[in-house]
Description:
The structure holds two protein chains of two kinds.
Chain A: H1 4-28, E1 33-35, H2 38-47, E2 53-57, E3 77-78, H3 82-87, E4 92-96, H4 102-109, E5 114-117, H5 123-136, H6 140-157, E6 166-171, E7 176-178, H7 183-190, E8 193-195, H8 196-200, E9 205-207, H9 210-216, E10 220-223, H10 241-247, E11 251-252, H11 257-261, H12 267-281
Parallel strand pairs in A: 1-2, 1-4, 2-3, 4-5, 6-8, 6-10, 10-11
Antiparallel strand pairs in A: 7-9
Helix pairs in contact in A: 5-6, 6-12
Chain B: H1 7-27, H2 35-43, H3 49-82, H4 95-108, H5 111-114, H6 118-140, H7 143-167, H8 177-182, H9 190-209, H10 211-217, H11 221-226, H12 231-253, H13 259-267, H14 275-300, H15 308-326, H16 328-332
Amino acid sequence: MIPMAHKIRTIVLICGLWITTCLTFAAEKPNRIVSINVCTDHLLFMLVDRTRIASLTHLAGDPHNSMIVEEVQGIHLNRATAEEVIALAPDLVVAGAFNFSPTVTTLRKLGYRVKEIQLASSLQDIKTNLTNLGRAVDEIERAEALITIFNRRLKHLTYRSEKKPLLFARYEANGWTVGQNTLIADVASAAGFETIGERLGFTGRRYLSLEQLLLLQPDLLDLGYDWKESPALASEKFKHPALSELLKNIALVKVPNPAWACGSPYTLGALARLRRARDQLDPLEPRNTL
Amino acid sequence: MKNLPSYPALIAVLLTTTLLAFVTSILIGPTELGFRDLVTAIFSENPSMTTTIIGEIRLPRAILGLLIGSTLGLTGASLQGYLRNPLAEPGVIGVSTAAALGAVLAIYTGLSSSVPLALPVMAIGGSLIAVLILRALAGSGSILTLILAGVAISSLGGALTSLVLNLSPNPFASLEIIFWLLGSITDRSMNHVWLAAPFIISGWVLLALSARALDVLSLGEETAISLGINLERTQLFIIFGTAISVGAATAVSGVIGFVGLVVPHILRPWVNYSPSRLLLASALGGATLLLSADVLVRLITPGTELKLGVVTAFFGAPFFLHLILKTKATFNT
């Protein structure tokens, strides 16, 4: 027979070990997470339980920037100032990585734990960001599960053909368009398109004159949001008669702004729309259609 | 001055430069088009993208350059004659800024999307208020009073314009402060031409009708009255002519400074200091200058175009300083 005292000691020891583990675990697992960037808002929302989110940015509640407007109702929304973040007493702050961010510098100086996430400029970056943030919030398994689903959908949507890519242009307010090394270019390429910026050979975002757009005649055009409810000159170009002339000859796709704004699993929604447009433009080979 | 060309010769030269600048404006752009493309675009039966580019993008831009440049030159010349002040010019004395404020109110409140006519009308309202304030002040004061009042109106107009744009929920609006304060005619369309041209031309007519009165006014108000000039009518024509043409021009281009200052000063000796002859000459000179400036913004930084006001201020501001030094004697009296 094992003496009673020994039994109790064993139980205490096991419990002790368990509690210590729990405490260590709790110290590493943040439970009051604040996000101060709209892109990290989306990733964080997918990775952790709602109860662990102390605050997201106000942009998460803005339909022009967010895919999760309905879902975030009831969660505190911030305007990404250091003062506001401190008042929320977070145990982890998630921010977008910029070259110049006084808010992040201030928070770090005051001893807050800040995890910076690079903004995604490719589909691969989205997966990397999920892994990085998953590790920071201790949800590695959930991150991996999201990536598996992401890969499956991506594989399903990717356009595979020997055919030459068609020309795609995203033309935003003020005449901005994109070229190499952008998320939009990567998504377009997965859907069987080449962006107008890649055709012209530039990297990143740049102004494109209406004239050049007209001359290059993209096969598919995605016009940015026109802000009808609060007009500005920026979107006046969308009403230009020369553009209406162009639209008579080419196809138009409507991708909601927030699907492009941030790299997240929601970006696949944009890919799906482009892929559908690709199949409609060029329906000759039935084996390529879904 | 002996070696001056005759007035018709001067006008012929200015007409030629205006025409050259106009054609150059149509030929210069991000896509390379030659004179042959231009001719084909005009005469071809079946429209192509080149036709659309020339007809819907380049042509409205050149027409607006012509209309707005002429307006600035013309109003500069008539304001200088009427106020007998060498520094008067719609940009410097705040008339353009006030017009921009009116235009900004019309656009960003959404009024002009439902009623397009609200844009030129509100801009004209803005410039009219500014001209009336200046008239009230300049009637009693010196050259300096007018310029200082202009500075006050300009800063207030600029500040209110920025305020309206900052209050707009549209994320692009606040960036457009630059457009309204520095001016541009990039990618305007024929819609803008149709909206502004009738007002601009009516303003010109009013100013042209007061040309003779300006000549007589240079002899002093009392002499003018004794010579049978209807002073009140002349005043109304000049005030409304300036407000209407500058207002409508600013509504589509933003504030473009110094054109109305520089052009009349350069041309004045060439028309023998005759205020009435200076009007047509300055209109043509203004058109040449603005069209050339608009060609320059496309050549200096292709792709990301400079604002027109940057170019006009570049040569206009030093000129303004030069004029201040020249008129210093008048300030001290």
